[in-house]
Amino acid sequence: MKSYLMAMSAGLFLLLAGLHAYAEETDSKTADEIRTEALKAPIGPEGRPFPLAATWAPLSHNFSPEYQLGLIKQGHHLILCFHWPYAETQWGANRKMRLDNFKKYFEPALKEAARLKLPISFQRFQFEMELTTEKKYFELPPEQNPNVSGLDGKLQHMVDPMGPIELWSQLGKEEVSSECMRLAQEIYPDPPLVIFLSNNEHQVLNYHDAEKSKRFVDKYGTGTAVALREKIFAEELIRHYRALQEGMRNGLANENWKKNAKFVAYEAFGPPHLGRYGGWVDSAGFSPESGRMIWQHLGWDGGSPSYYTHDWAAFLTDYNSASIQVEAMNWVFMLKDVLKENPNFWFELSTWDGDQYGINGKREQYAGRGGQIYNADRYQGLLQFGLWLLRPRALRDFRYLESLAYAEAYFLANVKAVDQVYASPLLRKFWRKGELVPNESRKHPYQSALTDELKKKERWYLLETDLESPAKDWGLYTEIPVFPLALVLGKEPQREWLVFAHAPKGARTDLNVTLPGFGKVKINASVTGSFYHVKEQGKSVECVIPGGPLSAIPESSANIAKTGETVSFKAGNVFNPGKVPLDIEWDFGDGTKASGLEVSHAYVKKGQYFVSLTAKNSEGETSLRYLPISVGYPELDKCLLFLPLEKSPEIGIATERVQTGALKWFPEFVGLVFAANTKAFCGLNLGCDWAEDKERGQVLHLSGKGTYVAVHPFYDFELNKQIPRYDALGRNRTVCMWFKADDVERRQVIYQDGSANADVMNIYLDKGSLYAGTSSGKNKDWEGTWLSTPVEARKWYHVAVELDNADPEKLSDCFKLYLNGKLVSSGKALLNRPFWARIGGAWSTRFHDGTTEKKSESLNGYVDNFAVFLNPLSEEEIKKLMKE
Question: Is the pTM above the cut of 0.90?
Fold first, then answer.
């Protein structure tokens, strides 16, 4: 028995030793690949280096170095990132605390990186920031000060490229001279590559504003030509940033770190919005005259431009001609030009889907536009388009305060997109040597303020499909259902192409794509992205990576129906990548169900119904999509948005809220409130619930504690074709609803749009009165107009406020308040564009007494039948609406 146990122990020891050796071999293989690709030239004899995944947020609570190393050990290809080693002043200069935290966060990961010989990176806020924020620099005499000294001699909180260069070098040395930075060099003395990464968002004087600097005017006078200012600033910015970097290099204690350091900056590249609107030149470090970037590629070793769908711009999406995919096509020619001047320029993409904790994240914005689903699969499709369009050195994902549980799937979308290149010999071949295929049959939609030279640049790479609008119909926000591009290898007649296509809002099947030099090919486009291999010889088209996930999109013959009317339903664009047996099930929301690709149903009662379509294949994959159907509601002429505010199923988005001080996360659910007159828009319900009212039936209940319904999508004029131009809703609109307040003394907002420092329209209660107000963010001489009337608590009222042909410049008597169908009063107003509209408060607004609140109090009460109209309504029309 003893010998048996000894044999078992020996066997187990050998097994564990073998597993350990295998794990180390996997570690080493992946680390070798990471190191090899990171050290290659941007375009060398072998072709382009394979990409790496990376993060902007190597924070302890989410994507720590330990977490990144765990992925590398699993065989994923990342460039390891740390936050900046602690300065001597952190934790109140408490050295023990600083060193204890260094040992926890830096030391183990640096030792492992040293064992694997991994390239590393360190992320910091603006390198030059302390020139403005630290007293020892900002309080220097004007002639010695690195910041802008105005013509009046006053110092401004922005650095001046005309200022003394020595201080930049001095600061650079200080930034790498901390004890913790020296310890990092001792632990890992021979890294093959060290990237120092700046978020590069400090205020720097722009050449357009050169004559605001006393130094510039003293040296060059006033009235200097734009081209001269541009040239002077380019030379000075290059000198100053290179001095900063050389200071950092010289401040490093280790010679290997000095030799292998690269300095890379966020947004140190050209403008993606080139040509989108006339003023693009003013916000771009790009010269239309020369057709090239002014200085960034010579002032930095690399750039990390933002491949983002920004949260602050609802119109910037992943599915229209204002998308980052369309914008990023501008970078193709810029990158070619940059590599001619700086052949070793490190070009990576900073990536972000615009989603974050809270109501203004991109997931919520998309949900408000017809209940769109936004998830990590959709993000992966966006990433893969950018990856294959530009073939960057890295995809560096931006997350910040989100928890790992919330954000991990999105970060891993970057990792998956990168790993797919390494995993496929075909993709590897095209990545190295393939040439991007331009689509010369169509111009890039951004054509504003372009020089003749820029008009000649190749800027359009989206292949034509049979789904898109004709060229003459394209505007700045035209929807694009599918994003296909191609790379080509070889010469005619033995060419081969790699075609990639992704469909952001849902897979598209049996799609015809026109491939230049070949002709039409029929493909499927998945959400994550599908890859096809096309060969000229034999005219073959083969799907090599189908992508995913399983999906089926519910379609209906009508989304607004009369009671008793039969509505037809179809499961459209069924994408089943595994090609295994599939079940299609329908639930019509009224207790009736059906199965099959095509079904029909008639509703016998008035109401809003939420039809669910479930597709499930034999491998266990499931797709669930919803389609709202409104039955029996009146047709309202020129109504942009009508929310009956009747109880709906809990369909929405699971998100989280963060308590920033303690870094605690709380789950939140943002429910969808569907409109009865359009499927293009939804309200977003944050914290409101439903109540049964004796007079009005089902109504929306707001608790007064930060609860509200966001309805901002109604003003999206590209989604709603009833709006003829951008200013239409600013000139003419009517907002109306029923409300009942539990208390009318406390100041509480019933409705608001805009914000306190911009245009405002609001309806609120205060000290027994109902107020309707409007003010302008542009006209500071006008204090705004507020109309009021007494109201009582616990009583239903119908309120309507309207603008009637408001002018953008001239005040006119165009603002009106109606209560219960009667005109209360009117007053002067200006054109007022809606922005971030809400039922309830919890947002910045302005009041009749001149006060403003960053986060107003919401109504404590009830709301019913909310509607927005494109036109001002008459008193008779409002009375009729009240009855309907």
Answer: yes
CA angle 399, 401, 407 (to 5 degrees): 50
- Residues 183-209, mean pLDDT to the nearest whole number: 96
Pairing of strands 697-703, 689-693: antiparallel
CB 406 within 8 A of CB 665: yes
The dihedral built from the CA positions of residue 715, 716, 721 and 726, taken in this order, carries a sign that is positive
Asked if the model's pLDDT at residue 322 lies above 70, the reply is yes
Per-residue buried b or exposed e for 854-874, using 16+ beta carbons within 10 Å of the residue's own CB: eebbbbbbbbbbbbbbbbbbe
In order of 311, 755, 848, the CA distances from 779 in angstroms are 27, 14, 16
pLDDT at position 399 over 60: yes
Comparing 658 with 786, the larger pLDDT belongs to: 786
Q: Residues 494-528: pLDDT tens digits?
A: 999 999 999 999 999 999 999 999 999 999 999 99
Best CA proximity match to 228, nearest among 247, 205, 258, 207: 207
Torsion sign, CA atoms 479, 481, 486, 492: negative
| pLDDT per residue as tens digits for the range 617-653 | 988 899 999 999 999 998 888 888 899 998 877 788 8
Sorted by where each starts, the structural domains of the chain and their CATH numbers stand as 40-422 (3.20.20), 436-545 (no CATH), 555-631 (2.60.40.10), 639-883 (2.60.120.200)
Residues whose CB falls within 8 Å of the CB of residue 590, separated by 6 or more in sequence, listed in order: 603, 604, 605, 609
**Torsion sign, CA atoms 639, 640, 643, 649:** positive
Count of C-beta atoms within a 10 Å radius of residue 795 = 11
**Residues β-bridged to residue 352:** 308
**What is the distance, to the nearest Å, from the Cα of residue 97 to the centroid of all Cα atoms in its chain?**
37
Least confident range of 9-13, 419-423, 623-627: 9-13
Q: Which tens digit of pLDDT belongs to each residue from 46-62?
A: 999 999 999 998 988 89
DSSP structure class, residue 481: S
Give the count of alpha carbons within 13 A of 403, CB side only: 14
What is the number of H-type helices and E-type strands within the chain? 22, 49
Q: How far is CA 111 from CA 38, 67, 104, 184, 445, in A?
A: 20, 15, 12, 9, 51
Report the chain's terminal Cα–Cα distance, integer Å.
Answer: 89
Q: What per-residue string of b and e applies to 576-612 under the rule 16 or more CB within 10 Å gives b? A: bbeeeebebbbbbbbeeeeeeeebebebeeebbbbbb
Mean pLDDT rounded to a whole number for the chain: 91
Give dist(CA 31, CA 49) in Å, integer: 15
Sign of the C-alpha dihedral computed for residues 157, 160, 166 and 171 taken in this order: positive
What whole-number percentage of the chain has pLDDT above 70? 94
User: pLDDT tier at 777 (50, 70, 90 boundaries)?
Assistant: confident
Q: How far is 775 from 752, CA to CA, in rounded Å?
A: 12
Cα gap 689→691, rounded to integer Å: 7
Question: For residue 476, with 0-12 CB atoms within 10 Å meaning exposed, 13-18 middle and 19 or more buried, which class applies?
Answer: middle
728 pLDDT band, cuts 50/70/90, is low
Classify strands 560-561 and 551-556 as parallel, antiparallel or unpaired.
unpaired
How buried is residue 800: exposed, middle or buried, by Cβ count under 10 Å (0-12/13-18/19+)?
Answer: buried
Residue 200 burial by Cβ neighbours in a 10 Å radius (0-12, 13-18, 19+): buried
Check: CB of residue 281 under 8 Å from CB of residue 230.
no
Nearest-angstrom CA–CA distance, 834 and 840: 15
